[in-house]
Amino acid sequence: MEFGNYKEVLCARATDSKIQEVSQDGGIVTALFSYALEEGIIEGAVVAGPSDEPWVPKPVIAMSKEDLIDAAGTKYTHSPNVWALKEAVRQYGLEKVGTVGTPCQIMGIRKMQVYPFSTRFVADKLKLLIGIFCMENFPFASLETFVEEKMKVNMDDVTKMDIGKGKFFAYTGEEDNKIPLKQTHGYEQASCNVCPDYVAELADVSTGSVGTPDGWSTVFTRTDDGDSIFKAAVDAGVIETKPMDENVKPGLGLLSKLSKGKKDKNKKEAERRIKMGLPIPAGFDNFYKY
Amino acid sequence: MFEKLKKSFGKSETKPVESEVKYEEGQVSVKPTNKPKIGYIHVSGCTGDVMSLTENYDILSTLLSDMVDIVYGQTLVDKWIHGTYAEEMPDMDLCFIEGSVCLQDEHSLIEVQEARKHSKLVAAFGSCAMNGCFTRFSRGGQQAQPKHESFVPLSDLIKVDLAIPGCPASPEIIAKSVVALINNDMDYLQPALDIANCNLACGCDLQTNVINKALCTGCGTCALACPTKAIDMIEGRPIINTNRCIKCGSCNVHCPRTWFPLDKIKKEFNL
Fold this sequence. Notes:
The complex is a heterodimer of chains A (290) and B (271). Chain A is of the alpha/beta class and 290 residues long. Chain A has helices at 17-22, 28-38, 65-71, 81-89, 103-114, 140-150, 224-235, 252-275, 284-287, and strands at residues 8-14, 44-50, 57-62, 97-101, 126-132, 160-164, 167-171, 176-180, 205-208, 217-221, 239-243. In chain A, a hairpin with an 8-residue loop joins β9 (205-208) and β10. Chain A is globular, with a radius of gyration of 18 Å. The model of chain A has no long low-confidence stretch (mean pLDDT 96). Chain B is α/β, with parallel strands linked by helices. In chain B, the strands form four sheets. Chain B has a five-stranded parallel beta sheet with strand order 4-3-5-7-9, with helices on both faces. A two-stranded antiparallel ribbon of chain B has the order 1-2. In chain B, strands 6-8 form a two-stranded antiparallel sheet. The longest helix of chain B is centred in the middle third of the chain and has 13 residues, at 106-118. Mean pLDDT of chain B is 87; it is low at 8-17. At the A-B interface, α4, α5 and α9 of A face α6, α9, α10 and α11 of B.
């Protein structure tokens, strides 16, 4: 299954207009963590918040809806949220923690939970892992190249970055600066080229843009906890959903194509590397299958 | 109980251990009718790993009284060679050895070699035993034994069957490993078997085995696992403060790009 195992897939968005204004897509991460905070399901969430430098994310331990709203929106470079879980558990003393991450980050956390060799009393504190779809990630210098060199736009002026419809966009308010996605190829980090996971198959809930119209998100609920928290948020009216049927465009077909495409391409790259005598993480071979 | 483990090492002369499985109200409880004999040896370690074992507050008394027999050891029971009770080392199903071994300390050398002879399985318990960890920095010249300078991980001296790294190994991994052993869940223990002779020791291994091999995604799990905050994440890559690194190997073991237990994750989280 190219989407991993899941309980339900839905088209969804946050109902709060404040969240809709700042969110990358449907605002699912912000809305779900806000709900979980309010309900005491979590006491804090490690999210990719703003740092002193524009478009450089920094893990932030969000303790309120305001903190979450400040962190909303995709930053197309690294935010080591997994690292900050330790701070959340130790320095902040949180007993119930949520975090959001790319598939590789969720993989690191899940491995730690199953084999917590040296992470005493961290694994049991993690109550909600939200995974985001991820085709690839970029070193920060790559983003600078796209925005400042290729589009001739100042990073400080960019209000939103987005990848979609075959293009990389950097919005500045006045005009939509864009480059074809082809021009970003070769700038992604090399480790992404063997990644077996597009839709965060191991998260409690995973969400992303592809499959649903602008302003909405595709959501997979996966674990029992993830499913029940998401459903409770829907029941509470924090998130609205539509069935993922033929009325939702572009629909699951495109998501399926992209997920299979990533797995196939990266499996091929893994095989190429193995032929050269380079290592691939033990256990990845099964992960490319669908 | 240890049959599968022994088979995986190509030996088959062990006696089968009987266990009684009870299903009560949907709960599965395994009570060995023939409890495994466990030993604990403390060589050049700090007792941190066995302290960590005792931090399994909820299950500790059940574990120690119902599930296993501790037949040898200084800290948990008063029985060790040249000690108060045991004139001779008893036979053990599993012997946990904490600490590295000082080559200039005759007693340590004898104890680990005897342990190998008397144990079906030897577990390197904690990073010092697995790969030397902090004792890799030892270089002698101190009172009262200036000659005590050379400390090696267990696998330099004896065959080690499995390793439970960490500085200390977490209470949870100790509990999970012991429960897996009792339930004969070899699948879960496979990674511990695979790293029994681990010689990857420090943050430098992340650089050479992960970053240099185009595998690092900057996820930050290594920095989470580091017990001394020697790892900083800079521009999406771990950077190692070698003056803080104590060579415990936790970063390398935890990295999802060294090995990845997909099936076990799916099983544990019902994914």
